Protein backbone atom coordinates (compact mmCIF):
# COMPACT_ATOMS: atom_id res chain seq x y z
CA UNK A 1 0.00 0.00 0.00
CA UNK A 2 1.37 3.38 -0.87
CA UNK A 3 1.33 5.46 2.27
CA UNK A 4 2.30 9.13 2.09
CA UNK A 5 5.43 9.38 4.18
CA UNK A 6 6.40 12.31 6.34
CA UNK A 7 8.34 14.78 4.21
CA UNK A 8 11.90 13.67 3.62
CA UNK A 9 14.87 15.42 5.09
CA UNK A 10 14.80 19.11 4.42
CA UNK A 11 17.62 21.51 5.00
CA UNK A 12 17.32 22.68 8.56
CA UNK A 13 17.65 26.40 8.91
CA UNK A 14 17.87 28.13 12.21
CA UNK A 15 15.20 29.09 13.11
CA UNK A 16 12.97 26.32 11.77
CA UNK A 17 10.30 27.64 9.39
CA UNK A 18 6.93 28.08 11.07
CA UNK A 19 3.57 29.31 9.85
CA UNK A 20 2.81 32.96 10.50
CA UNK A 21 6.40 34.10 10.25
CA UNK A 22 5.46 36.79 7.72
CA UNK A 23 2.18 37.92 9.25
CA UNK A 24 1.92 41.68 9.74
CA UNK A 25 -0.15 43.23 12.50
CA UNK A 26 -1.29 46.84 12.91
CA UNK A 27 0.35 49.10 15.50
CA UNK A 28 -1.84 51.44 17.50
CA UNK A 29 0.71 54.17 16.82
CA UNK A 30 0.33 53.69 13.05
CA UNK A 31 1.70 51.33 10.41
CA UNK A 32 2.24 47.60 10.65
CA UNK A 33 4.99 45.29 11.80
CA UNK A 34 5.77 41.58 11.47
CA UNK A 35 4.15 39.81 14.39
CA UNK A 36 6.59 38.59 17.01
CA UNK A 37 4.99 35.46 18.50
CA UNK A 38 6.57 35.20 21.94
CA UNK A 39 3.89 33.10 23.59
CA UNK A 40 5.16 29.65 22.59
CA UNK A 41 4.58 28.29 26.08
CA UNK A 42 0.85 28.69 25.55
CA UNK A 43 0.73 27.51 21.92
CA UNK A 44 3.60 27.36 19.46
CA UNK A 45 3.07 28.11 15.77
CA UNK A 46 2.84 25.09 13.47
CA UNK A 47 6.10 24.02 11.92
CA UNK A 48 5.91 24.58 8.17
CA UNK A 49 6.90 20.98 7.69
CA UNK A 50 4.08 19.75 9.94
CA UNK A 51 1.65 21.84 7.92
CA UNK A 52 3.09 20.46 4.66
CA UNK A 53 2.86 16.88 5.88
CA UNK A 54 -0.74 17.37 6.97
CA UNK A 55 -1.59 19.02 3.64
CA UNK A 56 0.04 16.14 1.74
CA UNK A 57 -1.95 13.63 3.73
CA UNK A 58 -5.28 15.51 3.69
CA UNK A 59 -6.53 14.12 0.33
CA UNK A 60 -5.89 10.61 1.66
CA UNK A 61 -7.80 11.27 4.88
CA UNK A 62 -10.18 8.48 5.77
CA UNK A 63 -11.91 6.88 8.74
CA UNK A 64 -9.58 5.09 11.14
CA UNK A 65 -9.78 1.48 12.35
CA UNK A 66 -13.16 0.33 11.16
CA UNK A 67 -13.21 1.28 7.48
CA UNK A 68 -12.71 -1.34 4.77
CA UNK A 69 -11.72 1.11 2.06
CA UNK A 70 -8.23 1.85 0.81
CA UNK A 71 -8.04 5.29 2.40
CA UNK A 72 -9.35 3.94 5.70
CA UNK A 73 -6.61 1.35 5.75
CA UNK A 74 -4.05 3.92 4.78
CA UNK A 75 -5.23 6.31 7.52
CA UNK A 76 -5.21 3.49 10.05
CA UNK A 77 -1.62 2.71 9.10
CA UNK A 78 -0.65 6.34 9.55
CA UNK A 79 -2.40 6.54 12.89
CA UNK A 80 -0.74 3.40 14.23
CA UNK A 81 2.63 4.42 12.80
CA UNK A 82 2.27 7.75 14.57
CA UNK A 83 2.33 5.84 17.87
CA UNK A 84 5.61 4.23 16.89
CA UNK A 85 7.11 7.59 15.95
CA UNK A 86 6.05 9.10 19.28
CA UNK A 87 7.40 6.06 21.16
CA UNK A 88 10.76 6.51 19.40
CA UNK A 89 10.73 10.27 20.06
CA UNK A 90 10.22 9.63 23.78
CA UNK A 91 12.62 6.67 23.84
CA UNK A 92 9.89 4.53 25.36
CA UNK A 93 10.37 1.00 26.67
CA UNK A 94 9.24 -1.91 24.47
CA UNK A 95 6.17 -2.58 26.56
CA UNK A 96 5.02 1.04 26.91
CA UNK A 97 1.75 2.23 25.42
CA UNK A 98 1.25 5.48 23.54
CA UNK A 99 -2.28 6.80 23.98
CA UNK A 100 -3.42 9.73 21.87
CA UNK A 101 -5.42 12.23 23.90
CA UNK A 102 -6.55 15.79 23.36
CA UNK A 103 -3.79 17.50 25.36
CA UNK A 104 -1.58 17.30 28.44
CA UNK A 105 -4.58 18.18 30.59
CA UNK A 106 -6.50 15.31 29.04
CA UNK A 107 -3.55 12.92 29.42
CA UNK A 108 -3.13 13.66 33.12
CA UNK A 109 -6.86 13.40 33.76
CA UNK A 110 -6.81 10.05 31.97
CA UNK A 111 -4.03 8.82 34.25
CA UNK A 112 -5.85 10.20 37.28
CA UNK A 113 -8.91 8.18 36.26
CA UNK A 114 -6.71 5.08 35.92
CA UNK A 115 -5.08 5.23 39.36
CA UNK A 116 -5.33 2.00 41.34
CA UNK A 117 -7.51 2.06 44.43
CA UNK A 118 -5.97 3.85 47.41
CA UNK A 119 -3.23 5.40 45.33
CA UNK A 120 -1.40 8.22 47.06
CA UNK A 121 -0.38 11.12 44.85
CA UNK A 122 2.46 13.56 45.53
CA UNK A 123 2.65 16.80 43.65
CA UNK A 124 4.46 20.10 44.18
CA UNK A 125 2.37 23.23 44.57
CA UNK A 126 4.47 24.71 41.77
CA UNK A 127 2.78 22.63 39.10
CA UNK A 128 0.60 23.91 36.30
CA UNK A 129 -3.05 23.36 37.25
CA UNK A 130 -3.19 20.53 34.69
CA UNK A 131 -0.75 18.62 36.91
CA UNK A 132 -1.98 19.94 40.23
CA UNK A 133 -5.71 19.41 39.99
CA UNK A 134 -6.62 16.07 38.33
CA UNK A 135 -5.80 14.02 41.45
CA UNK A 136 -8.45 15.41 43.73
CA UNK A 137 -10.26 12.08 43.98
CA UNK A 138 -7.06 10.43 45.23
CA UNK A 139 -5.17 10.93 48.49
CA UNK A 140 -3.07 13.90 47.48
CA UNK A 141 -0.09 15.38 49.27
CA UNK A 142 0.77 18.84 47.95
CA UNK A 143 4.42 19.63 48.55
CA UNK A 144 5.71 23.14 49.27
CA UNK A 145 7.67 24.97 46.58
CA UNK A 146 11.36 24.06 46.85
CA UNK A 147 13.98 26.80 46.36
CA UNK A 148 16.64 24.52 44.87
CA UNK A 149 16.51 21.32 42.81
CA UNK A 150 18.18 19.49 45.73
CA UNK A 151 15.47 20.76 48.06
CA UNK A 152 12.86 19.39 45.65
CA UNK A 153 14.39 15.92 45.90
CA UNK A 154 14.74 16.18 49.70
CA UNK A 155 11.15 17.37 50.11
CA UNK A 156 9.85 14.51 48.00
CA UNK A 157 12.00 11.95 49.78
CA UNK A 158 10.74 13.06 53.20
CA UNK A 159 7.13 13.01 52.07
CA UNK A 160 7.51 9.54 50.56
CA UNK A 161 9.31 8.21 53.62
CA UNK A 162 6.26 9.16 55.68
CA UNK A 163 3.79 7.43 53.39
CA UNK A 164 2.09 4.11 53.91
CA UNK A 165 4.69 1.96 52.06
CA UNK A 166 2.20 -0.73 51.02
CA UNK A 167 -0.24 0.99 48.71
CA UNK A 168 0.47 2.34 45.24
CA UNK A 169 1.79 5.88 44.89
CA UNK A 170 2.33 8.33 42.07
CA UNK A 171 4.52 11.41 41.88
CA UNK A 172 3.63 14.02 39.29
CA UNK A 173 6.54 16.24 38.26
CA UNK A 174 7.00 18.89 35.66
CA UNK A 175 9.99 18.80 33.33
CA UNK A 176 10.22 22.54 32.76
CA UNK A 177 8.12 25.15 34.52
CA UNK A 178 5.61 27.01 32.39
CA UNK A 179 6.26 30.10 34.53
CA UNK A 180 10.01 30.28 35.06
CA UNK A 181 11.13 27.86 32.33
CA UNK A 182 13.38 26.26 34.93
CA UNK A 183 14.31 22.62 34.49
CA UNK A 184 13.35 20.27 37.29
CA UNK A 185 15.59 17.42 38.46
CA UNK A 186 13.36 14.79 36.90
CA UNK A 187 15.82 11.89 36.97
CA UNK A 188 16.64 12.45 40.65
CA UNK A 189 12.96 12.81 41.57
CA UNK A 190 12.17 9.61 39.68
CA UNK A 191 14.96 7.77 41.52
CA UNK A 192 13.64 9.03 44.85
CA UNK A 193 10.12 7.99 43.90
CA UNK A 194 11.14 4.52 42.82
CA UNK A 195 13.27 4.02 45.93
CA UNK A 196 10.05 4.49 47.90
CA UNK A 197 7.92 2.30 45.65
CA UNK A 198 6.18 5.19 43.90
CA UNK A 199 5.73 5.76 40.18
CA UNK A 200 6.30 8.97 38.29
CA UNK A 201 4.42 10.83 35.60
CA UNK A 202 6.34 13.57 33.84
CA UNK A 203 4.45 16.62 32.66
CA UNK A 204 6.54 17.33 29.59
CA UNK A 205 4.24 20.00 28.12
CA UNK A 206 7.04 22.58 28.34
CA UNK A 207 9.98 20.19 28.18
CA UNK A 208 9.30 18.14 25.06
CA UNK A 209 9.24 21.14 22.66
CA UNK A 210 12.64 22.33 23.91
CA UNK A 211 14.59 19.33 25.05
CA UNK A 212 14.99 15.64 24.24
CA UNK A 213 12.86 13.50 26.56
CA UNK A 214 13.95 9.92 27.16
CA UNK A 215 11.57 7.83 29.23
CA UNK A 216 14.32 5.28 29.78
CA UNK A 217 17.02 7.73 30.69
CA UNK A 218 14.84 9.80 33.00
CA UNK A 219 13.36 6.64 34.48
CA UNK A 220 9.81 7.99 34.48
CA UNK A 221 6.77 5.77 34.20
CA UNK A 222 4.61 8.05 32.05
CA UNK A 223 5.05 11.18 29.99
CA UNK A 224 2.34 13.63 28.96
CA UNK A 225 2.61 16.41 26.38
CA UNK A 226 0.49 18.49 24.01
CA UNK A 227 0.73 18.72 20.23
CA UNK A 228 -0.09 22.43 20.13
CA UNK A 229 2.99 23.28 22.19
CA UNK A 230 5.10 20.98 19.99
CA UNK A 231 4.37 22.84 16.75
CA UNK A 232 1.47 20.52 15.86
CA UNK A 233 -1.74 22.42 16.68
CA UNK A 234 -4.31 19.88 15.49
CA UNK A 235 -5.98 18.99 18.78
CA UNK A 236 -3.99 15.97 19.95
CA UNK A 237 -1.84 15.16 22.94
CA UNK A 238 -0.02 12.11 24.26
CA UNK A 239 0.13 9.95 27.34
CA UNK A 240 2.90 7.39 26.98
CA UNK A 241 4.18 4.86 29.45
CA UNK A 242 3.47 1.77 31.48
CA UNK A 243 0.55 -0.31 30.28
CA UNK A 244 -0.43 -2.10 33.48
CA UNK A 245 -2.39 0.64 35.27
CA UNK A 246 -3.96 1.71 31.99
CA UNK A 247 -5.00 -1.84 31.15
CA UNK A 248 -6.46 -2.46 34.59
CA UNK A 249 -8.52 0.73 34.57
CA UNK A 250 -11.99 1.29 33.26
CA UNK A 251 -11.84 3.04 29.87
CA UNK A 252 -11.46 6.80 30.19
CA UNK A 253 -14.44 7.20 27.87
CA UNK A 254 -16.91 4.43 27.21
CA UNK A 255 -17.78 3.92 23.57
CA UNK A 256 -16.86 2.48 20.22
CA UNK A 257 -13.22 1.87 19.51
CA UNK A 258 -12.48 1.07 23.17
CA UNK A 259 -14.71 -1.99 23.13
CA UNK A 260 -13.75 -5.30 21.53
CA UNK A 261 -17.07 -7.09 21.99
CA UNK A 262 -20.42 -5.99 23.39
CA UNK A 263 -23.19 -8.50 24.16
CA UNK A 264 -26.64 -8.47 25.70
CA UNK A 265 -27.00 -10.45 28.90
CA UNK A 266 -29.97 -12.64 29.57
CA UNK A 267 -31.01 -10.22 32.33
CA UNK A 268 -31.23 -7.50 29.69
CA UNK A 269 -28.01 -5.69 30.57
CA UNK A 270 -24.90 -5.25 28.43
CA UNK A 271 -21.51 -6.93 28.82
CA UNK A 272 -18.42 -5.29 27.40
CA UNK A 273 -15.04 -6.74 26.63
CA UNK A 274 -12.70 -3.74 26.50
CA UNK A 275 -9.49 -3.55 24.49
CA UNK A 276 -6.25 -3.89 26.40
CA UNK A 277 -4.25 -1.83 23.93
CA UNK A 278 -4.08 1.97 23.87
CA UNK A 279 -7.45 1.93 22.08
CA UNK A 280 -9.04 1.16 25.48
CA UNK A 281 -8.68 4.86 26.34
CA UNK A 282 -9.34 6.28 22.89
CA UNK A 283 -13.07 5.68 22.49
CA UNK A 284 -14.74 7.54 19.66
CA UNK A 285 -13.32 8.37 16.25
CA UNK A 286 -9.60 9.06 16.63
CA UNK A 287 -8.09 12.38 15.62
CA UNK A 288 -5.87 10.96 12.90
CA UNK A 289 -4.65 14.35 11.69
CA UNK A 290 -3.79 15.35 15.25
CA UNK A 291 -1.78 12.15 15.78
CA UNK A 292 -0.14 12.39 12.36
CA UNK A 293 0.85 16.01 12.97
CA UNK A 294 2.44 15.13 16.31
CA UNK A 295 4.42 12.38 14.58
CA UNK A 296 5.52 14.88 11.95
CA UNK A 297 6.64 17.32 14.64
CA UNK A 298 8.54 14.57 16.47
CA UNK A 299 10.36 13.68 13.25
CA UNK A 300 11.04 17.30 12.37
CA UNK A 301 12.58 18.10 15.76
CA UNK A 302 14.59 14.89 15.82
CA UNK A 303 15.93 15.49 12.33
CA UNK A 304 16.70 19.15 13.07
CA UNK A 305 18.68 17.81 16.02
CA UNK A 306 18.04 18.80 19.60
CA UNK A 307 21.71 19.72 20.01
CA UNK A 308 21.29 22.44 17.41
CA UNK A 309 17.86 23.48 18.66
CA UNK A 310 18.95 23.68 22.29
CA UNK A 311 22.10 25.62 21.39
CA UNK A 312 20.08 28.15 19.42
CA UNK A 313 17.40 28.49 22.07
CA UNK A 314 19.96 28.93 24.83
CA UNK A 315 21.51 31.74 22.81
CA UNK A 316 18.09 33.44 22.76
CA UNK A 317 17.60 32.79 26.49
CA UNK A 318 20.96 34.43 27.21
CA UNK A 319 20.07 37.38 25.00
CA UNK A 320 16.78 37.95 26.85
CA UNK A 321 18.31 37.48 30.28
CA UNK A 322 21.19 39.83 29.57
CA UNK A 323 18.83 42.39 28.06
CA UNK A 324 16.44 42.30 31.01
CA UNK A 325 19.30 42.27 33.53
CA UNK A 326 20.28 45.70 32.21
CA UNK A 327 16.89 47.15 33.20
CA UNK A 328 16.81 47.54 37.01
CA UNK A 329 13.02 47.96 37.10
CA UNK A 330 12.58 44.44 35.70
CA UNK A 331 12.55 41.47 38.03
CA UNK A 332 12.77 38.04 36.40
CA UNK A 333 10.98 35.37 38.42
CA UNK A 334 12.93 32.34 39.51
CA UNK A 335 12.47 29.52 41.95
CA UNK A 336 15.92 28.00 41.72
CA UNK A 337 18.01 31.16 41.28
CA UNK A 338 18.97 33.41 38.39
CA UNK A 339 21.52 31.01 36.94
CA UNK A 340 19.26 27.94 37.00
CA UNK A 341 19.08 26.20 33.62
CA UNK A 342 15.84 26.95 31.82
CA UNK A 343 14.10 26.57 28.50
CA UNK A 344 12.91 29.55 26.48
CA UNK A 345 10.27 30.63 28.99
CA UNK A 346 10.78 33.63 31.32
CA UNK A 347 8.33 35.51 33.49
CA UNK A 348 8.95 38.91 34.98
CA UNK A 349 7.35 41.92 36.61
CA UNK A 350 8.16 45.56 35.96
CA UNK A 351 8.28 47.94 38.89
CA UNK A 352 5.49 50.46 38.72
CA UNK A 353 3.64 48.68 35.96
CA UNK A 354 0.52 46.60 35.93
CA UNK A 355 1.56 43.50 33.96
CA UNK A 356 -1.56 43.55 31.82
CA UNK A 357 -0.80 47.16 30.88
CA UNK A 358 2.78 46.27 30.00
CA UNK A 359 1.76 43.28 27.88
CA UNK A 360 -0.90 45.38 26.12
CA UNK A 361 1.71 48.02 25.26
CA UNK A 362 4.12 45.38 23.91
CA UNK A 363 1.37 44.17 21.64
CA UNK A 364 -0.18 47.45 20.54
CA UNK A 365 3.02 49.48 20.14
CA UNK A 366 5.54 46.82 19.09
CA UNK A 367 3.54 43.93 17.61
CA UNK A 368 4.90 41.54 20.26
CA UNK A 369 2.62 38.80 21.58
CA UNK A 370 3.46 37.80 25.17
CA UNK A 371 1.15 36.72 27.98
CA UNK A 372 0.30 38.21 31.34
CA UNK A 373 -1.45 36.69 34.32
CA UNK A 374 -0.87 33.76 36.63
CA UNK A 375 -0.33 31.23 33.82
CA UNK A 376 -2.59 28.51 35.30
CA UNK A 377 -0.05 28.10 38.09
CA UNK A 378 -1.58 30.35 40.75
CA UNK A 379 0.22 28.94 43.82
CA UNK A 380 3.60 29.15 42.07
CA UNK A 381 3.18 32.70 40.81
CA UNK A 382 1.96 33.86 44.21
CA UNK A 383 5.00 32.22 45.82
CA UNK A 384 7.31 33.89 43.33
CA UNK A 385 5.70 37.31 43.71
CA UNK A 386 5.64 37.03 47.47
CA UNK A 387 1.94 37.86 47.39
CA UNK A 388 2.68 41.60 47.26
CA UNK A 389 0.51 43.62 44.90
CA UNK A 390 2.04 46.90 46.10
CA UNK A 391 4.41 47.38 43.19
CA UNK A 392 1.77 47.20 40.48
CA UNK A 393 0.74 50.39 38.77
CA UNK A 394 -2.50 51.31 37.14
CA UNK A 395 -3.48 50.40 33.61
CA UNK A 396 -5.43 53.51 32.88
CA UNK A 397 -8.84 54.66 33.86
CA UNK A 398 -10.49 53.05 35.67
CA UNK A 399 -7.60 51.73 37.71
CA UNK A 400 -7.32 47.94 37.92
CA UNK A 401 -8.37 46.91 41.38
CA UNK A 402 -5.55 45.55 43.51
CA UNK A 403 -5.83 41.83 44.20
CA UNK A 404 -6.01 38.81 41.93
CA UNK A 405 -5.86 40.76 38.68
CA UNK A 406 -2.97 43.02 39.52
CA UNK A 407 -1.01 40.27 41.23
CA UNK A 408 0.27 38.91 37.97
CA UNK A 409 3.36 38.71 35.81
CA UNK A 410 4.42 38.90 32.17
CA UNK A 411 5.72 35.81 30.36
CA UNK A 412 7.86 35.75 27.25
CA UNK A 413 8.41 32.38 25.60
CA UNK A 414 9.98 31.24 22.38
CA UNK A 415 11.41 28.22 20.61
CA UNK A 416 12.57 26.60 17.41
CA UNK A 417 10.81 29.07 15.11
CA UNK A 418 11.88 32.28 16.82
CA UNK A 419 14.15 34.59 14.80
CA UNK A 420 16.73 36.71 16.64
CA UNK A 421 14.85 39.85 15.63
CA UNK A 422 11.86 38.91 17.80
CA UNK A 423 13.88 38.74 21.00
CA UNK A 424 15.93 41.80 20.03
CA UNK A 425 12.71 43.75 19.47
CA UNK A 426 11.34 42.47 22.76
CA UNK A 427 14.40 43.54 24.78
CA UNK A 428 14.42 46.94 23.09
CA UNK A 429 10.66 47.39 23.67
CA UNK A 430 10.93 46.54 27.37
CA UNK A 431 13.75 49.07 27.75
CA UNK A 432 11.85 51.80 25.91
CA UNK A 433 8.59 51.25 27.78
CA UNK A 434 10.38 51.36 31.12
CA UNK A 435 12.39 54.45 30.16
CA UNK A 436 9.81 56.45 28.20
CA UNK A 437 6.48 54.98 29.27
CA UNK A 438 3.70 53.90 26.95
CA UNK A 439 3.05 56.13 23.95
CA UNK A 440 -0.64 55.31 23.98
CA UNK A 441 -3.41 55.39 26.53
CA UNK A 442 -4.94 52.16 27.78
CA UNK A 443 -8.12 51.37 29.63
CA UNK A 444 -9.36 48.37 31.55
CA UNK A 445 -11.98 46.24 29.85
CA UNK A 446 -13.20 43.00 31.41
CA UNK A 447 -10.18 43.04 33.70
CA UNK A 448 -7.68 43.40 30.84
CA UNK A 449 -5.82 46.42 29.54
CA UNK A 450 -6.66 47.41 25.98
CA UNK A 451 -5.70 50.46 23.93
CA UNK A 452 -8.17 53.29 24.42
CA UNK A 453 -9.35 54.24 20.96
C1 LIG B 1 3.62 22.65 32.30
C2 LIG B 1 2.26 22.53 31.68
N1 LIG B 1 1.53 21.44 31.91
C3 LIG B 1 0.32 21.27 31.37
C4 LIG B 1 -0.23 22.21 30.56
C5 LIG B 1 -1.58 21.99 29.97
O1 LIG B 1 -1.46 21.85 28.59
P1 LIG B 1 -2.78 21.80 27.69
O2 LIG B 1 -3.45 23.12 27.90
O3 LIG B 1 -2.25 21.64 26.31
O4 LIG B 1 -3.58 20.68 28.17
C6 LIG B 1 0.47 23.37 30.28
C7 LIG B 1 -0.12 24.43 29.44
O5 LIG B 1 0.29 25.55 29.43
C8 LIG B 1 1.76 23.53 30.85
O6 LIG B 1 2.48 24.62 30.61
TrEMBL record:
Note the InterPro entries from the entry. Aminotrans_V_dom (IPR000192), PyrdxlP-dep_Trfase (IPR015424), PyrdxlP-dep_Trfase_major (IPR015421), PyrdxlP-dep_Trfase_small (IPR015422)
Q: Which Pfam families match?
A: Aminotran_5 (PF00266)
Cell wall biogenesis/degradation in keyword set: no
Cofactor(s) required, per the database record: pyridoxal 5'-phosphate
Please give the superkingdom of this protein's source: Bacteria
Residue ranges constituting the Aminotransferase class V domain according to the UniProt record: 38-426
Alphabetized GO MF terms = transaminase activity
Which UniProt keywords are given for this protein, alphabetically ordered?
Aminotransferase, Pyridoxal phosphate, Transferase
* PANTHER family cross-referenced by the UniProt entry: CYSTEINE DESULFURASE, CYSTEINE DESULFURASE 1, CHLOROPLASTIC
Provide the protein name: Aminotransferase class V-fold PLP-dependent enzyme
